[in-house]
Amino acid sequence: MHRVAASAATVKLLIDGEFVESGSAQWRDVVNPATQDVLARVPFATAGEVDAAVASAKEAFKRWRRTPIGTRARIFLKYQQLIREHMGELATILTAEQGKTLPDAEGDVFRGLEVVEHAAAIGNLQLGELANNVASGVDTYTLLQPLGVCAGITPFNFPAMIPLWMFPMAIATGNTFVLKPSEQDPMVTMRLVELALEAGLPKGVLNVVHGGEDVVNAICDHPDIKAVSFVGSTRVGTHVYNRASLAGKRVQCMMGAKNHAVILPDANKEQTLNAMAGAAFGAAGQRCMAASTVVLVGEARGWIPGLVTKARTLKVNAGTEPGTDVGPVISCAARERIEALIASGIEQGATLELDGRRPEVPGFERGNFVGPTIFSGVKPGMRIYDEEIFGPVLVILEAETLDDAIALVNANPNGNGTAVFTQSGAAARRFQEEIDVGQVGINLPIPVPLPMFSFTGSRASKLGDLGPYGKQVVTFYTQTKTVTARWFDDETAGHGVNTTINLK
What we know:
Blueprint: E1 3-10, E2 13-15, E3 18-20, E4 27-31, E5 37-43, H1 47-64, H2 69-85, H3 87-98, H4 102-119, H5 122-125, E6 130-135, E7 138-146, E8 149-153, H6 161-172, E9 176-180, H7 187-198, E10 206-208, H8 213-221, E11 225-231, H9 234-246, E12 250-254, E13 260-263, H10 269-281, E14 293-297, H11 304-312, H12 332-347, E15 351-354, E16 373-376, H13 383-386, E17 393-399, H14 402-411, E18 414-415, E19 418-421, H15 425-434, E20 440-442, E21 458-459, E22 462-463, H16 470-476, E23 478-486
Parallel strand pairs: 1-5, 8-9, 8-11, 9-10, 11-12, 13-14, 13-19, 14-17, 16-17, 19-20
Antiparallel strand pairs: 2-3, 4-5, 6-7, 7-23, 12-22, 15-16, 18-21
């Protein structure tokens, strides 16, 4: 049972610059995963409310698309300043509703802040091309023009970072936006939205609706939405991509993963074990880029006790408690699913090296806690390998050689991220060339790029050919228009009719 906190309030919609109370009959509790306290109630927006949000964005686009690029940039300069000033507050909200530790929550906000800073540089990013005098007196140039109303659907695990991946770049390029945050933890997102308005976003440029499947489908189907960005599970992402694409929209979907870290025996052992413990169990494993799968190559197969020892040092507690390494998972349902997958690993013959089920957390006995868990002897075909666990569970496979490890990783359908740990430049280069995964780390377990590059997951982890943020997202949120122009003066006019296709 959830306990309703005295301060629990209703989460508002943002429509046409106003925070409004939903008229919905369907609501969901926002629950602190460490205590089960109800922090707020979030509405599942009605069809009419979604239509109103889109209509507001469509009307605002008429003005916003003509707003000078310098004016847009200055809003995001102000916005990044406001986020910095409110970093502690934002992290506190995030930890309360999502569960991750306060330092990790600040990291969540900061990685989104980096994209806001990138959006403030839009003047250098949204540049067309010019070819002068391609024929006699003829110039050809391109314009990168905004699409119109765009939409974003974000997941629970990064409720600050991923919304900040989406709406700042869409808006900076001249579009307007409708955001649907995760209904499980929308409060920090809404605080970020408040700060965006404070930074100077005009009414209607950013709108927010909450909800579940019906709202997602409404976004996919709405004829006035031109592009949809999604981050979340493979099941929902595939549905969004197919449905929104069928409706004629541009779509980018970043989805599930099974990220492998290949450890060669020449790797620095201490640094590698530390990196793996952090990457596997940080954020309670609830990262689409978590290094959840280790492939030990050759003599590195003897490193299993070292991994277990490192994992045992991690402290499981509420994210607000000092020194916490692993907080709760997002919900009771998530904990039960993770525990069921752990049980399946035992049933299917993997060796449970460390069992993190039902840890004792004094003072937070009602929390959704799963401690670091490690399996060895894992093979393809086991559920703990084939499925994304999205919890603090590390599975270990073994390979004789680097070639065998590369083949194993490439046989997995997912392609979000991978890593290799080695002191051999030749081995690292071979790995980066032959691995069929979109993002590669070398002695770095979570290779999420900074915003001047793009997030480039691949294969089953991504649908759509352009990733969020970086140069690719400018292309995603703009339409390239090519103009070929000739201006006549008195000396060049009057050469008669030309019926050929050539320009002369």
